[in-house]
Amino acid sequence: MKDKKIYKIIFIQLGEIYEIFAKQIFQSDMYGFLEVEEFIFTNDDQLVVDPSSEKLKTEFNKVKRSYIPIGAIQRIDEVIESGEAKIKKTSSQVSPFPLNIQPAKKTD
Q: The dihedral of CA 24, 89, 56, 65: what is its sign?
């Protein structure tokens, strides 16, 4: 039986913490980006619906592939089963310092 991997990706976008699940992640050909494919969203019929989960489903509904800047990634976990995707507000007033991830130019 083929082992199906599931990844939990946590990243910051527009001052909010996004937590999503996907089946495929790659280092992108576009320098400095992580490529995320095959998003997983729970389809449970619940009485209480999390609005942030619904927002994520709508945002990534027709997205085949997403490119996330490496500097925005907080954590990537390989998990046994997917959970509920969600968006959380950041409680910190501190912004991450922008990094220059381009390679240095060689000087002769």
A: negative
Name the DSSP letter for residue 72: G
- Record the pTM: 0.73
Residue ranges of E strands in 1-108: 6-13, 16-27, 33-40, 65-69, 73-79, 86-89
Give the contacts of 23 (CB within 8 A, at least 6 positions apart). Answer: 4, 5, 6, 7, 37, 38, 40
Cβ neighbours of 9 (radius 10 Å) = 21
Q: What is the pLDDT of residues 59-99, one digit of tens each?
A: 788 888 999 998 889 999 999 988 888 888 877 666 666 66
Residues 39, 21: Cα–Cα separation, whole Å: 6
Both structure tokens of 60: 């990534």
SS3 assignment, position 57: helix
Helical H runs in the chain?
A: 51-59
